[in-house]
Amino acid sequence: MNNSRMFMAMILGAIFRRRSRALMAVIATMVGAATLFCLAAVCIAVPQQMNEDMRPYGANLVVAAIEKQGAEKTGISDAMVAHTTSMVRAKSSAKFATYRYETVRINAAPYMLAGIESTQVRALNHHWSVQGSWPSHGAVMVGSDVASALGLNVGGNVTIAYQSSDNGGSTTSKTTQDGRVSTDILNGGGSTYRVAGIVNTGGSEDEIVYATNADVNALSGVKRGADVIEYSSSAMGTDLTAIATSINDMTSMGVKAQTVTKISSSDTKIITMLQTLFWLISVVVLALTFVGVGTTMTSIVSQRRNEIGLRKALGAPNSSIRTEFYTESVIYGLVGGGLGATIGFWLARLLCSLVFGRNIAMNWWLVGVAVVLSGIIAILATIRPVVKASRIDPAVVLSEE
Amino acid sequence: MLLELDHVSKIYGDLHAVDDLSLSVQEGEWLAIVGSSGSGKTTLMNIIGCMDTPSEGTVTLEGRELNDLNASQLADVRKNIIGLVFQKFYLVPHLTAVENVMVAQYYHSVVNEKQAMEALSNVGLAERAHHLPSQLSGGEQQRVCIARALINCPKLILADEPTGNLDEANEKIVLDLFKKLHAQGTTIVVVTHDSLVASCAQREIMLNHGVLVGERWNDEAAQQRYVDAGGEPAKTRHAENSKQSAEESSMPVGFDTITKSAKAH
């Protein structure tokens, strides 16, 4: 046996042959580590889950075409939609939908008509309440306010007219499609569509009529790109802002990106609250762990006063006494931290399963942090008892009756 | 001389735990320090064992004056020159007998399990080497303590009431071990209030309230060697005052009486 093995024999002897005290130190660390791990795991999982849950409730990033003054509206071309989408998806997963807006006339009154791909918009807006069905060829979906104003019902018909002058152009100069240009409704023209559904969102969408892009193209006689692309990205906060900034920085794209602050700030607020709560509880748990480990180590040192006195009488320097106790303490910390992380993981898993109905995966990075932090806390909590131990006077201790 | 105390005092406020003691111990000598509880013998042992420093006077061990040494240097002297044997054994409870012996090696230099086993074998405990102290009898624990004290080949064995917690049979075993060590040339200083243990020593000195009250040689040949080496009788101011009466007798005044009194404690 060499000195290193003797050192380990002394440490392991102190741990395994004085199991009750060792167990107390391990349990104190374990409880702290389990609580911290569970909190941290939930704090990481909840925003992710919340983000995923919030995404069906609409877009958090809107990209609009920059139209030049006086120039004809061309919208965002399909190629640019693909390019912008690839930029957004480079940072995180995202769903998107394009919208082409035109002003139309129904019973001479102006209304907003949106040309959409139903599947895209539907995937983006799970919260929309649709009575009937989504737009299809020859059938439109009208907002509930429009339906109410016009007395429209699902299955009924609506005549929609397109006037180029309402959309910043002149009727005569328009390029025609299918050999037709929509006429002024006052002249008795317009196209009739079946009302496939009525949408109710509680928002401005209730004032819009939705048709397929193909129908809008046919009605206007012009095929052009979308005015707006809405994205529901899994990125949040600064990441989302960074995406918007990166798009805006590329001025040649001819689009302007903007985060939808309503949803983003709501997310951020909840996450900030969660994180504040996490830090508060963490500080309390850390303090309790510190006190628990410190008290146990004080008790261990006190119980081993004679042994420390003897070691010093045998010539042990203070540094050696300190090293032995710190090593012992680190072992308690690491074992407690490891066990705590395991228990914390299962607690977090149970919590997430009960609250969110989903399982979380083991976060090994978090395990490492929990174990190392437990070791550090154990060392810090041991400083005071160890300083006390190194001050023990062997003459006094060994003379005690 | 291996150990020299020159007018050593240890003073706590108004209390003189050791009062102006001068004492020399020759290499290879066996000295017993006797006295009742509170007589200052443990304080004296702590001073000799480098676990305490005197308030006054100087202590010289192996020609090195200890007064100016700091705690770390005293610890070095302790581990290199002195072997300690305690009344209450003070074995590390979570280490086996052989590990307890190796602890002394560990703090001294390099651990050698073979040597530790030999030391245990020398005290008749080879077969109990891997037992914990709680599995050993008092006598066995004291023998482990002695093996630990001897493992680094110290010049001086300091034993504080080494048989205080032992029955007669174990007391005899321990005394036989000391006799064997002494025969091998080890210097032994034993603090005791047991007259039997004290009588095994070549010289006895008696303390009472920190003051030397008597000195007696049990071995004339050893005394002669001591005198030949220039050794002087132990003394304090109090002893010098009663020198006259001491010279009239072969032993200091009242030695037997005080020994009996001490034993009664």
UniProtKB/TrEMBL annotation, chain A:
Keywords: Cell membrane, Membrane, Transmembrane, Transmembrane helix. GO terms for molecular function: transmembrane transporter activity. The keyword Transmembrane applies. It comes from the Bacteria. InterPro entries: ABC3_permease_C, Macrolide_Exporter_MacB. Residues 280-394 form the ABC3 transporter permease C-terminal domain. It holds the Pfam family FtsX. GO terms for cellular component: plasma membrane. It is found in: Cell membrane. The chain crosses the membrane at residues 277-301, 330-356, 362-383. It is a multi-pass membrane protein. Residues 164-180 have a biased composition (Polar residues). Residues 164-183 are annotated as: Disordered. The keyword rRNA-binding does not apply. Belongs to the ABC-4 integral membrane protein family. This is ABC transporter permease. The lineage of its organism: Bacteria, Bacillati, Actinomycetota, Actinomycetes, Bifidobacteriales.
From TrEMBL, chain B:
Residues 228-265 are annotated as: Disordered. GO terms for molecular function: ATP binding; ATP hydrolysis activity; transmembrane transporter activity. This is ABC transporter ATP-binding protein. One of its GO terms (cellular component) is membrane protein complex. It comes from Bifidobacterium aquikefiri. The lineage of its organism: Bacteria, Bacillati, Actinomycetota, Actinomycetes, Bifidobacteriales. Keywords: ATP-binding, Nucleotide-binding, Transport. SMART domains: AAA. The keyword Kinase does not apply. Signal peptide: none annotated. Residues 3-234 form the ABC transporter domain. InterPro entries: AAA+_ATPase, ABC_transporter-like_ATP-bd, ABC_transporter-like_CS, ABC_transpr_LolD-like, MacB-like_ATP-bd, P-loop_NTPase.
